[in-house]
Amino acid sequence: HHIMEGRWIRDETVVDDYARFWFRGDGWRKQYTWWAAYALWQRSLLLHHRPSEGITGSLFGDLDAHYHSWLRTHYSPRGECMFTSCHADGEENSAGLDGCRPTINAAMYGEANALSHIAASLGNESRARYFEAEASRWRR
């Protein structure tokens, strides 16, 4: 949510550096659920009008890898859902035990949808179609 809030900072380098820290620095990207691709996509629409411009386009490969990293480590084929501990999803233990988390499924939909738009803006039609299909899968 920091990137979403940072959309309104006039100095673009603040959020650009923050995004670089998370994706090319020492940031621990999977400690909690977050929607980096969606936030960067929304920011790029506000600042540049096209997702291919600015930091969003240059981080597309990292954002793509981040999405697939979540699938590798948190997807449950049995439940067809994203699985994690409740505290890592920003919820209290009393809100539900470890298991399938609808909040992460929703975040994955937003990420796939954003990645589809970013890929299309970059002219990468195969990745755009792939992520469009992923968004449809999560939307079910």
TrEMBL record:
Pfam families: MGH1-like_GH. It comes from the Eukaryota. Residues 1-98 form the Mannosylglycerate hydrolase MGH1-like glycoside hydrolase domain. One of its GO terms (biological process) is carbohydrate metabolic process. This is Mannosylglycerate hydrolase MGH1-like glycoside hydrolase domain-containing protein.
